[in-house]
Amino acid sequence: MAGGKLSARQKMINLMYLVFIAMMAMNMSKEVLSAFGLMEAKFAASNVVTADMNEKLLANLGVKAEEKPAEFATAANKAKEISTASDEFYKYIETLKVQLLKKGDYAIDPKTGKLPFEAMDKTDILDEMWFTGDRLTKDGQAVMATIDNYKSKVKGIIGDDVKYIKAIENFENRFSTAQQPNKDGKKIDWLDYHFKGFPAIASYTKLTALQNDVKVTEANMFNVFLGNTLDEAVSLKNYTAIVIADKSAFFAGEKFQGKVVLGKYANVIPSGLSVGGAAIDLETAIDSTGAARLDFSVGGVGEHEIDGTFTFLEDGKPLEIPIKGNYVVVPRPNSATISADKMNVVYRGVVNPMTISFAGVPDNKVSASGAGLKKGSGIGKYSMVPTSGREVTINVTATLDDGSKVSDKAMFRIKDIPKPSGRIAGQVGTAKLPRNNVAIGKIEAVLLDFDFDLPLTVTGFKMKVEGKPSVTCSGNRLNGAAKSALSSAKRGSQVQIFDIKSRSNGPAIKPASPIVIELSN
After folding, report:
1. Which of 30, 255, 309, 414 is the most buried (most CB within 10 A)?
2. Do 144 and 177 contact (CB within 8 A), yes or no?
3. 445 Cβ contact list (under 8 Å, min separation 6)
4. Which of 118-127, 275-284, 472-481 is predicted with the least confidence, judged by mean pLDDT?
5. Is 425 exposed, middle or buried (0-12, 13-18, 19+ CB in 10 A)?
6. Quick check: helix, strand or coil at residue 136?
7. What is the Cα–Cα distance from 180 to 169, expressed in whole angstroms?
8. Bigger pLDDT: 128 vs 281
9. Residues 472-490: pLDDT tens digits?
10. Cα R_g (the chain), whole angstroms
């Protein structure tokens, strides 16, 4: 049946996602981020197809319940309840995806209809929402509670009928939230293992995959109610050989390390294996899961294909399954990415945020130094407060996987805080104001087109009315002498506010540019 074919494809897609998730690293190439985006699009498209199929299966159950109520009435009712519970859970997952996009300020391109896959590399969105240290936040606890609630609802609907035991077993495996061992062998919580520290596109894809699990669950249950067996794969022809690289890209001269597995860890021992026309020794290559380890020197820089065959015995005859895969070789990094978050210069006396990274190297293996430079919180985050001189050099060193070190440096110009502008009643430079507005107005000094938040407080200024001597004022408003001079000025005459002095909570500030006011009355 069509349902059976779709289940095999869904299982393959789900396993491919788990394979890619195992290859995750904190600093991923744009190509890998795009690959996750493409995988997410496949999950989303599959969800649409499966949802349509499920509607037809549910309708078919309804028809059979009317035709043969003794056989199908109970099953049809159970199917409706599972559909309702699944729809609620599916929509809840959709709200998590919407929150992820909103928090990361990601939006679908109206022209292409796609998400900005390559830009979705933030790892702290769900980390901040769901985790606090080694514990879950209230939002994280709510996620786990909702998953457990959905599992309880489905199992409660199915009940203890023995003919559904296999379906429940497969459902439990699909939605298992048991602890998983991390790279150090320590068992960590399911939510931590699958979402903590991963780029936004990987988490988004995982949520779409979870929605796919919901749709597949519906399809499986509906088929079981109809007497079909969607969960069982009876032939190895339904499997696909998948190449799993230990990492997504390799430096020139390195050995490719990875393994080839079937689309399901079936623990089936092959009778033969060849890659690139060369036979592989099965005794040393095959592990306990049926996976075959690969170990060969990679080619030059660029994309390379892996081809071969997995051979198994089925019905007493050899069955050859083609191996198709690829990997990308990238040159060893020899330059760092160093950029000022605000602009291409740094300003004296203020905190300049900076991002420093080394292509292909995790943050914990990158070190940077420079006058006034300090490590901040977050991946690649630093701050610099330059003091003396006109230039500052930042030196960066990275430790590669093989223990070798590479380094680079970049030079930044140091600039003083620019001269502020005088302002009154929201107007800068020249203004035309009523006499009373000038008399009660507040004199301000503002840094126009300056990207840093540096508030200034005016400490004093001078005022000159045409035909009158200048008056010195303290603070940011006219004193009695200045108001007296202003009151004697004629309509249309000019009033100058100059030598505007101010202070900041950091560096010394130059006097602001003057304000020339024409009295309108």
Report:
1. 414
2. yes
3. 420, 421, 422, 423, 456, 458, 500, 502, 509, 512
4. 275-284
5. middle
6. strand
7. 19
8. 128
9. 999 999 999 999 999 888 8
10. 34
